[in-house]
Amino acid sequence: MNAPQPQPPGPTFRWSGRDAQGRPQSGTLQALHADLARAQLRRQGIQKVQVQRMWWSSPDSIKSKDLATMTRQWAAMLKAGVPVVQALAMLCRSMSHKNAVRVMQTVLNDVTSGVALNDALARHPRHFSGLFVHMVQAGESAGILDQIMESLSQTLEKNEALRSKIRSALMYPTAVLMLAMGILGLILVWVVPVFEEVFQSLGAELPWSTQMVMGLSDSLIQAWPVVLFVFAFPIWAAQHPGPAANRLRTWAAQWLLTWPVLGPLLTTAIVARWSQTLSALLSAGVPLAEALGSTAQACDHPDFERVTLQLQRRVVQGSSLSEAMGQTARFPAMIVQLCATGEETGALDSLLGKAGGLMVTELDDHVNGLTSLLEPLIIVVLGGLIGAILVAMYLPIFNLGQVF
Fold first, then answer.
1. Which of 245, 269, 241 is nearest to 256 (CA)?
2. pLDDT (tens digit, 9 = 90+) per residue, 117-148?
3. Nearest to 315 by CA among 276, 281, 343, 349
4. Do residues 256 and 262 touch, judged by C-beta distance below 8 A?
5. Would the CA dihedral through 232, 238, 243, 249 be positive or negative?
6. Lowest-pLDDT choice from 159-168, 319-328, 347-356
7. How far is CA 277 from CA 53, 134, 210, in A?
8. Residue 307: C-alpha distances to residues 10, 39, 260, 314 (Å)
9. I need a surface site. Which of 155, 190, 307, 335 has the fewest CB within 10 A?
10. Which residues does residue 27 pair with via DSSP β-bridges, in sequence order?
11. What is the pTM of this model?
12. What is the per-residue pLDDT for 210?
């Protein structure tokens, strides 16, 4: 059995050792360096520690899809009258994801020892967001945990559905672009040099288009380490914590919002998730200021997280939510107007839910339009690029044929 491990930022280490009773223990933890990892294990009573850094490790957080499914099962058990502790134990036995089982077993042990459920969940911020913790806290306080868990499962499923829409909209063009770039790279690296040798043996003057393609091929062959770094570094930075990587991810997220077609699609999805999350928290009785803090965590976008925290500060200072939203220039006018109406009528939670539904409908229209637009556009652009390279390579051969 692996001892529970704290999860500070840093690389992942695999460890093994023995506990105070001499029983072998093993597991993984995150620490800034190996010495700090050993110190953490010794403080937990682990002896004869051996630590090895894992350079390629998968993230240990629970996937949003798995979390939504687990919450749905949990809510069904509570609706059926199963006590919280027994429901947690049944979840631990039914889940197949090892990390989820480990986390829920830790939560079960804490609850069994007398810790409140929301406090036990709050000890795992990597797995349970502020939305999850605040809604569970509201359910415990009001004695309606089963209803709150049902509402929470619906919110998580809606958020996951929005992510799936974005992934499905971007999967096809991304796969086609990656495949096309690979084909272009193979043509420039392997095919063009063969033509270059033939042209050099003939000694004929080459057209400017052929010279451009051959120059691009030579540059790619000579600078392949730089090209490899340009493609590999963003992937590496996305998987590793650190200030520089966080700044890179923030810049990339903001940059994507400026794209002509993709930007409005991402903005619509983020605002829809923002509205649904805030509506669920307000419906559970969470105060607006606290709900905005949890909504910021659920945005999954650094720019909207920053904007939402600004809204939270202005609301605490006495400003209305709609007025603060209008000053950010990040939210559509329809959302701002619905929030203003909701504040005036006292139905902010329900109107935000309706706003989220309208944004989901708009997102469906964007996804359908994007799919119908990108398919022919990608075919035309990529076909034109590959065709231009082939024409540039065969043009000198055609000219030689006219001479003879």
1. 269
2. 988 888 887 788 878 888 888 888 878 888 88
3. 343
4. yes
5. positive
6. 159-168
7. 37, 11, 56
8. 27, 39, 22, 11
9. 190
10. 15
11. 0.66
12. 80
